[in-house]
Design a protein that fits this description.
Helix content is 34%, strand content 27%. By secondary structure, it is α+β, with helices and mostly antiparallel strands. It has one domain: Nuclear Transport Factor 2, Chain: A, CATH 3.10.450.50. The protein has a 5-stranded mixed sheet with strand order 1-5-4-3-2. It is globular, with a radius of gyration of 29 Å.
Length: 204
């Protein structure tokens, strides 16, 4: 009899304790998930114009994001180097297509760099697209690449001919042809084109 009453008291006490913990907030109540702290989203522009697509490549370079590079290149993308880069890396640019371009950008971005890029000079007059293809002649881009291991810098500045193509409701960079290196705005020294950068990271 005594044992039965003791058992009843233990059960009742446990129920009160359980109810009390539920009312005051149980220590086992699941917490709200924490917000991710790694990386920030990149506000890429809609690919509704060649201007936006070219701006997206700048965003990709400055944020070291290969996804943004790939998304803005046409599946039949072609790269044509300038004469100096082609001479420096003989044979490296033969059949340079989208696959080779993505191999280059992945290798470049994973090498431990930070970039400061401006992909269009202020004086460039952006042509309005007519039809499904537009060609930019003489656009000048500038990229300062910093090696994060030793803070050494390499700069690239060149004029290029860029052809954009509209397909499947989106604009893409269809063809990139580097023409010649341009002078460094700070030192006046003639800088290499991105052909040298592509040859360095994508020729193997």
């Amino acid at each position: 009899m005594i044992a039965a009453r003791l058992f009843q008291r233990l059960v009742l006490g446990g129920a009160v304790l359980l109810l009390s913990s539920q009312l005051s907030g149980c220590i086992f109540t699941p917490r709200d998930p924490e917000l991710p702290t790694s990386g920030a989203s990149i506000n890429y522009l809609p690919r509704t114009s060649p201007r936006n697509v070219w701006e997206n490549l700048q965003l990709s370079l400055n944020n070291i994001d290969s996804f943004g590079w790939e998304e803005n290149l046409h599946p039949e993308f072609t790269y044509i180097p300038d004469a100096e880069a082609e001479a420096q890396f003989p044979g490296a640019f033969v059949g340079w297509d989208l696959a080779k371009e993505l191999t280059f950008i992945d290798s470049f971005y994973s090498s431990g760099v930070s970039n400061l890029a401006k992909m269009r000079n202020d004086e460039f007059n952006v042509p309005e697209p007519v039809g499904t293809e537009v060609r930019w002649e003489g656009v000048i881009y500038y990229i300062k690449v910093t090696n994060t291991a030793d803070n050494s810098e390499t700069r690239y500045r060149a004029s290029a001919i860029i052809t954009f193509r509209f397909e499947g409701n989106f604009w893409y960079v269809y063809r990139w042809e580097d023409q010649v290196g341009e002078s460094d705005p700070d030192t006046g020294q003639i800088l290499p084109t991105m052909g040298v950068l592509r040859g360095t990271f994508g020729s193997n």
